[in-house]
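Section 5: illustrative case.
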């Protein structure tokens, strides 16, 4: 089912520069990999249709669309298409010059082409840049235009101005650029936590400085999670798309989430979503969707059926979590433990979760949640939190303590000094807003639950917080990773104890790696 504003059919040769662009690309760009590596580049029919409409012009030669977004299934071919367009915008006939004697528009090159590959992190640009290098290396364009192709930039050997290069989030340092074309890849990953919306606005403003000269931007995205308020969502819901000023090419599969276990319907939906992307492994994806229960159905809907979907089915499988519950071998005073701490002041909960070193058993030490009918000025009782921390160190042999610092950095620093001085365990800051490490610890916790490497005592509070958590996809090292979050920023469904549990399990692993298991035989001194 179509859910964009791409017109039916294709524009006539008198209405677009696209035909000239397509001929130029086939002559100067090569296929970067696969069985056809080194052969002239060819767009698929669906890609051709997008290119023809993207380069559609008004009678006066101005663009019909001032920007564009391509929303398709994962692996459809969005990145290669954008890489080809970046090359075309750098070297090809992509600005209106005049009409020839037959009334056909004639394109010309951009005098000073500044093509930017925008991303919220430099490593997110690498896939597109790799594709560009593959399309240009040993291509007719490399010699014809005298190109210097390096890992991070494509430019002219002669020193002539112009380049293709990455541009990543860097606050106000991006203001003032004057790009002629900007690629914004994977816009569903451009969220507030990585500065995506602000970066998008900066790039857009920079492009708009030379809009009259033909500068534009084009983005790609998978279907977004509406809980994240990503740039992909902002664009899709904008009036510029609704009124047809921006091109929005999207094709969703026609399948209900209730039919996601029906093999025939899943296969048909995948074929519909991927269209003429013949390289897509429909058979393999069908098996994965039917039998892999470690991935939420909403993720399949978004990435493979191209359907906007909330992560309503959550991060943790309830059945798997319940299987880890046991009343055997309960926690005892004096047990060696690690602790995870996530603190707030007003809105979110504050909690302490312990994890026994010898077997990974989780338990709630304490939690402070805002009461339903609390006054507007309600705050966490910081003295009670302090008392609970000291009591935990008195009751147990705490070997390792990880705490998320916001609002509690001073307390963490003080605890670290006090407990280290008394040889009562190590206290460390663990910033949960750092995706590179947090993606890894979230995955380790999830895997530990799936294979029953942890246990818990069925505490209603911990279970509720774990099952409240939903996933958020982020790019780390060029790969998609998963973080956990509330189902919406203002949600009352707390997940703080889930964060505590994740940190506690990681603290346990690091304590064991440090050789702390069963090495201490001292008596814990009271306070």
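Designed sequence:
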């Amino acid at each position: 089912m179509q859910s964009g504003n791409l017109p039916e059919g294709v524009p006539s040769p008198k209405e677009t520069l696209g035909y000239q662009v397509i001929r130029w690309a086939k002559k100067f760009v090569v296929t970067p990999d696969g069985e056809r590596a080194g052969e002239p580049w060819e767009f698929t029919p669906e890609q051709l249709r997008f290119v023809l409409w993207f380069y559609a012009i008004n009678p006066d030669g101005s663009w019909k669309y001032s920007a564009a977004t391509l929303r398709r299934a994962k692996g459809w071919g969005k990145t290669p298409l954008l890489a080809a367009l970046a090359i075309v915008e750098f070297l090809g006939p992509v600005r209106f010059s005049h009409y020839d004697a037959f009334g056909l528009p004639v394109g010309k090159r951009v005098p000073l082409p500044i093509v930017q590959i925008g991303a919220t992190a430099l490593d997110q640009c690498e896939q597109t840049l790799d594709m560009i290098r593959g399309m240009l290396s040993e291509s007719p364009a490399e010699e014809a235009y005298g190109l210097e192709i390096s890992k991070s930039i494509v430019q002219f050997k002669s020193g002539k101005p112009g380049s293709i290069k990455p541009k990543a989030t860097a606050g106000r340092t991006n203001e003032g650029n004057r790009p002629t074309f900007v690629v914004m890849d994977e816009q569903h990953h451009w969220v507030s936590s990585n500065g995506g919306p602000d970066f998008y606005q900066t790039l857009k403003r920079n492009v708009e400085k030379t809009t009259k000269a033909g500068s534009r931007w084009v983005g790609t995205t998978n279907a977004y999670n509406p809980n994240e308020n990503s740039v992909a969502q902002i664009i899709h819901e904008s009036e510029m798309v609704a009124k047809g000023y921006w091109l929005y090419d999207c094709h969703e599969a026609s399948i209900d989430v209730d039919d996601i276990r029906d093999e025939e319907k899943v296969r048909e939906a995948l074929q519909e979503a991927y269209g003429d992307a013949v390289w897509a492994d429909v058979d393999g994806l069908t098996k994965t969707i039917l039998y892999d229960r470690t991935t939420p159905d909403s993720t399949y809907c978004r990435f493979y059926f191209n359907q906007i979907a909330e992560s309503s089915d959550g991060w943790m499988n309830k059945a798997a979590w319940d299987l880890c519950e046991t009343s055997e071998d309960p926690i005892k005073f004096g047990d060696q433990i690690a602790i995870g701490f996530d603190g707030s002041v007003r809105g979110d909960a504050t909690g302490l979760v312990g994890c026994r070193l010898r077997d990974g058993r989780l338990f709630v030490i304490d939690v402070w949640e805002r009461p339903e009918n609390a006054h507007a000025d309600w705050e966490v009782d910081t003295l009670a939190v302090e008392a609970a921390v000291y009591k935990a160190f008195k009751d147990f042999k705490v070997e390792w303590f990880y705490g998320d610092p916001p609002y509690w950095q001073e307390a963490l620093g003080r605890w670290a000094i006090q407990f280290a001085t008394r040889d009562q365990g190590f206290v460390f800051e663990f910033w949960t807003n750092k995706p590179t490490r947090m993606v890894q610890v979230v995955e380790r916790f999830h895997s530990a639950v799936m294979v029953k490497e942890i246990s818990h005592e069925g505490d209603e509070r911990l279970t509720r917080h774990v099952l409240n958590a939903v996933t958020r996809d982020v790019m780390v090292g060029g790969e998609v990773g998963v973080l956990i979050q509330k189902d919406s920023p203002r949600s009352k469904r707390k997940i703080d104890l889930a964060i505590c549990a994740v940190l506690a399990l990681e603290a346990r692993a690091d304590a064991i790696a440090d050789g702390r298991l069963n090495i201490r035989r001292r008596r814990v001194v009271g306070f």
